[in-house]
Amino acid sequence: MISLFRNAFGGLSRQVWLLAIVMFINRSGTMVIAFLTVYLTQKLHFSVQEAGVVMTFFGVGSIFGTWMGGKLTDKIGYYPVQFWSLFLGGLMFIVMVHTHSFYPLCVCAFLLSAFGEAYRPANSASIADFSTPETFTRSVSLIRLAINIGWSIGPAIGGFLAARDYELLFWADGFTNMGAGILVWTFLRSTKKKKESTEHVLVVDKKDSALRDRTYMIFIVLASLYAIAFSQLFTIGPLFYKQACKLSEIQIGYLLGLNGLIVALFEMIFIYKIEGKFQRLSLISFGAFLVIPNYVIFLLTHNYIWLIVGILFATFSEMFAMPFMNAVSIERAKPHNRGQYSALYAMSWSVAQISAPLIGTQTIALFGFDALWYILGSLGFIATIGFGALSKKMT
What we know:
mainly alpha, 0% strand, globular, MFS_trans_sf, MFS_dom, cell membrane
């Protein structure tokens, strides 16, 4: 077992470990997003439809932020984009805690997401720069490991904080984001590769635009469908747990934290054992399929034990799909357009952040929770078939 862990974690660069530490600190404060729909409806007494609009602005900001983050990463480099994204995003959490009106909250949600999501394409590009082709997927998984350890801690702590005062979540998120930014400023600045400053002076041929890669654009559409199906677990899911299942904030925090804990414990070993043995698109297709049973459970029961089983299915869905989706997005790019490819992949999740709350809240308001679970299960099925078909075409 010790040898297995050593092999799974060995050979990764010091810079990748630094990025992982930054992400751990950042995601340990991931509390607001998990409880935002509950905060808007329970604390501020917004309607479900109004909460959905606020979350939609959050998604619009995410698309803008990832697009700008990708452009700036290709132009000025990943280091300054990561620092300012983390630091300004942290400040916006503190601004948002003092904002209680509907329209100003929409603006705050847009700015918060725009600053925060600019980090993602810069982070992906930096992972590629600090990895070899042999270690890239494991480097991605190490970053995800840090994210998920933080995610397992954040919502669990967030449940306790929310039970006392929802505003504490914003302060915790704000300070952890700024702390992560300071860590980037202190350590990563001195370790970034010198070649980064020269890579971005290359003249980029428009034919190299990611938008012209038709096969990759199909991949992005399918990734968006999967992201919509998966992300509802962490946006509308807490609202379902609270309203329909009558769970406490602490129980919700435990459920969400369980996802991150399992990924943190097993994903690196899992990736180490299966990487190279199966085609990546086939693994992604199977991962998309595994999101469906969770919604079947939502339709059949509100029992807490079965809700845990549903989270387990969703967790394995994440472990099969997400590391390899990220790997496909980077390895298909060239050094001078990694920002574009990374931004498009990140934008697939931003599209989900826009459409998922809007689809979710409006469907719930008009037809109830069950109708939403049918829709999300269908999206997961379409993504499953699509990725399976794409595996025969995409190399």
